[in-house]
């Protein structure tokens, strides 16, 4: 049986939001898609739904470079609330940054499942979703 997933896109670029959303919708396992323009409203959503496992996303696709709250700051704040959420959330950094410093930093953050360079192919997104919904 395929588990239906709630997926979250945190990215300030509308083109990236569109591309990721289209890739997500191509998977039959995607039930709900949440979109946030930066880390602050995404973090607020998580805090507002602590313990409400059915409302929390299964996967977050997180950009690094955003105004207000960037991806690194989001991850710092997320690590504080993570134990209270009641659900494991897989976080994938999806960024145009190919700087080795960013990649190394991401490798040392336990909450990050993988580091994907934009543009991410639909097959990669579908593979992630299908693997997690199996």
Tell me what the structure shows.
This protein has 134 residues and is of the alpha/beta class. The chain has a single domain (5-133), classed as Response regulator (Rossmann fold), CATH 3.40.50.2300. It has five helices and five strands, in the order βαβαβαβαβα. Strands 2-1-3-4-5 form a five-stranded parallel sheet, with helices on both faces. Helix 4 links the parallel strand 4 and strand 5. Helix 1 crosses helix 5 (122-133) and helix 2 runs parallel beside helix 3 (71-85). The model has no long low-confidence stretch (mean pLDDT 93).
Keywords, separated by commas or semicolons:
22% strand, 5 strands, single chain, alpha/beta, Rossmann fold, five-stranded parallel beta sheet, 134 residues
Stretches where pLDDT falls below 50 for ≥5 residues? none
Total strand segments = 5
The CATH superfamily turns out to be Response regulator
| Helix run count | 5
CATH topology term: Rossmann fold
- What share of the residues lie within helices? 40-55%
C-alpha termini separation: 7 Å
